[in-house]
Specification:
This is Cytochrome c, class I. By secondary structure, this protein is mainly α. It contains five helices and no strands. Bound molecules: heme C.
Amino acid sequence: MNTRFRFLAALLLAAAACTAGAATKTIQLPPDGAQLTPSPLPGYAKAQVNCVACHSAEYMLYQPPTAPRGYWEAMVKRMKAVFKAPVPDEDMPAIVDYLVKTYGNEKGR
Ligand code: HEC
């Protein structure tokens, strides 16, 4: 955590403490797409570690639901090659498996 973020976090905490109890608060949860869709597949946890550091999980939802396994494989490879996503090679098959079964054409299989 860098110091600037820590300073911001402290500010936010202080602000929250000042206003706590003053008024009824409503907490706006992010839309569902901001989180990866939960799954018992082993690739779910790996995708949480490797695929939402730079952008939200919403990016997965914008992909065609007809996208086959090869499409997701190419996507993960592209994230690695073009954007330097630190995805370990041995985790790629599990991640692709999770993606195609959660967002692609193997959904529900
Ligand atoms: C190092 C940062 C980084 C990581 C980690 C990362 N991505 Fe991305 N991803 C990007 C950027 C930057 C874009 C936007 C590319 C663009 O606008 O064309 C993107 C775009 C996408 C898109 C939108 C489609 C597209 O072609 O632009 C999808 C889907 C996606 N990423 C999936 C993944 C998956 C799956 C993983 C995990 C294996 C992952 N990303 C990890 C940086 C990252």
